[in-house]
Amino acid sequence: MKIKVENLGALRQAEFELGDMTIICGGNNTGKTYATYALFGFLSFWREVFSVTVSDKYVEQLLSEGTTSINIEEYVKIAPKILDQGSDSYTKQLPMVFASAEKNFIDSKFQVSLSPEDIQTNAPFEKQIGAAKADLFSIAKAENQPEVIITLLVEKHKLRITSENIKRTISDAIKDIIFGHLFPNPFIASAERTGAAIFRKELNFARNRVLEQMNLEKNINPLDLLLKVFSDYALPVKTNVDFTRNLEDMAKRESFIFKKYPEILTSFTDIIGGDYTVTRNDELYYVPKGKRIKLTMDESSSAVRSLLDIGFYLRHVAKPGDLLMVDEPELNLHPENQRRVARLFSRLIKVGIKVFITTHSDYIIKELNTLIMLNSGKEHLKAIMDREKYTTEELISSSSVKVYIAEEASVMICGGKRRSKCNTLVQADIDDNFGIEARSFDSTIDDMNRIQEEIIWGVK
Fold first, then answer.
1. Using N-to-C axis directions, what is the helix angle for 32-49 and 163-179, rounded to 10°?
2. Percent residues over pLDDT 70 in the chain
3. 200-226 pLDDT, tens per residue?
4. CA 41 – CA 217 distance, rounded (Å)
5. What are phi and psi of 170, to 5 degrees?
6. pTM of the prediction?
7. Could you tell me which of 354, 410, 297 has the C-alpha nearest to residue 40?
8. Rounded to an integer, what distance in angstroms lies between the CA atom of residue 87 and that of residue 359?
9. Burial of 409 by CB count in 10 Å (0-12 exposed, 13-18 middle, 19+ buried)?
10. Could you give the C-alpha distances from 269 to 17, 41, 85, 222, 249, in angstroms and in order?
């Protein structure tokens, strides 16, 4: 999946592609957060902005005969058109995603493109739609078969659902069959997460209003409803804070990481130096390792607060195929813990969670370099891994990582007619032997070293 943006915040024109791990680094006010928020919004809303029309004839046949079938290839042929129209529709929602004035996005563009080979519909699909504890109809597609079969599970007169809702449900299923495997479910930890951890009980965001309005307006379009309530905060911040407000409910679940990869949670515990716990009274505490005390969030360190939502996501919510998005993972962390976070991210992509980060941290980039270089298979590396306590589960291939530098560079604009220097995203080179070429950090470090050498030795 390739994303192209134009006139989005500081970014005049930029393209980037998702890898198993995607990193955007660069200076302040260069567009990193804009690219991140725009991507998060798209992955959150793509089902709502994609338009897949289901003919009335299918609903009529379903109601009259109890079953109908749709050839998914009809929609695969027009998938590029669906994608283009959906991208245009989403672009119009950018002011809502960023909680900003429409005038700031008049010339903005957000475009997603896919390679033809990306669209595979061979996987099986099955979903049952119900109401009031009763299944009403099912939608199923067998593996390697093009036919989507819709079947009534109740008598027609008991089907208390409108034809429009039936068409919308079938439409959503078709979207999932064609695009669902391409667009990961996103979870975001915004840079505002530390404050959210302290004030989560006091922050009364729109979730209750959404639920109340859904009860009052049964047929309202979910996107229209979201447009009404996401007006004060950027969508990623709102979503992040809303998650933090409901940690007690989250604590009742168990993620696949908790069940299958407890060693990852052990690594996370080592980073924060303890565990989060929720009491029977739904009170949240941090318990330092080896100590008989419980600390509230405002009594805990900023590092503990900055990793709160990530910790709950990993233990209680994470699913294979997710995209974990973290804005500045180094926030409030000691350099050693920044290195540990880099290793944690590497382990996550090995178990099927994609990772997307923006960072200013040279420590994170250099630790990822180490993991890439250790993966090259050279004979002497085993001894280094043993001595420094690296594991094979932490090593990553350079092909799994995409790195982009937010900086000023010459790009082709005006439909490819001329080049102009502007803020963009430049893909960094990644080498199996030397790692990531993160020049936005390297130049600063070189300047510091040069100045200190001159101070010490008195020569230029």
1. 130
2. 90
3. 555 544 445 555 555 555 565 655 555
4. 24
5. -65, -40
6. 0.88
7. 354
8. 27
9. middle
10. 32, 30, 45, 38, 21
Give me the pLDDT at residue 187, please: 96
